[in-house]
Every structure is written in structure tokens, then in C-alpha cells.
Amino acid sequence: MAQRRDFEPQPGVPLPPEQKAVADQLLAESVADIGAPTLVHYRDVYANLGLDWPGDAEIRALYPVADGVLSR
Questions:
Q1: Per residue of the chain (72 residues), what is the pLDDT tens digit?
Q2: C-alpha distances in angstroms, 46 versus 2, 24, 52?
Q3: 14 contacts 20 by C-beta, under 8 angstroms
Q4: How far apart are the first and last CA of the chain?
Q5: How far apart are CA 22 and CA 31, in angstroms?
Q6: Residue 18 domain-assigned (yes or no)
Q7: Of the four listed, 40, 42, 47, 67, which is most buried by Cβ atoms within 10 Å?
Q8: Which residue range forms the structural domain that includes residue 58?
């Protein structure tokens, strides 16, 4: 049976604690499996969503970031 979602995630809006714990675990597993995205990847996502870029330091504070050769 599918779970009912009482909260639709929005950029810049914190997740409820239960969902944040699940999201953090999924992110940690993904980073362990395939590595963290670079700043280029995050910039592309923000641009595709039509969001203003908050700056490299803000992204590094919020998300795991690989210091790859693709960083601009």
C-alpha cells in the first residue's frame, strides 16, 4: 500500500524531521555508492529548476560536494 504524503517537499523549505532522517539516510547511501555530486551538478539542478544559485559556500554547507575536476 502506498504511503500518503502530507507534505510536498519544496526548495528552501526544511523537511519534517521524520522525512529529513529518511532523506539523509538515502543521501548517505547514494554518496557511499556513487560519490557526491560536484558543484557543476548542483548548479545544473538549480538552473533547471529556475532557482537562483545561493553560492558555493551555501551548497557546501547544505550538501555533500565532491571536489572534482568538473567544479567551475
A1: 455 556 666 767 788 899 889 989 999 999 999 999 999 999 999 999 888 999 999 999 888 999 865 444
A2: 29, 20, 7
A3: yes
A4: 44
A5: 14
A6: no
A7: 42
A8: 34-72
Residue 60 lies in a domain: yes
Does residue 47 lie in a domain region?
A: yes
Is residue 68 in some structural domain?
A: yes
Residues in the chain: 72
Give me the residue label for grid cell 547544505: 62
Q: What is the spatial distance between Cα 44 and Cα 51, in angstroms, rounded to a whole number? A: 10
The answer for residues whose C-beta is within 8 angstroms of residue 32's C-beta and 6 or more apart is: none
pTM over 0.90: no
How many domains are contained in the chain? 1
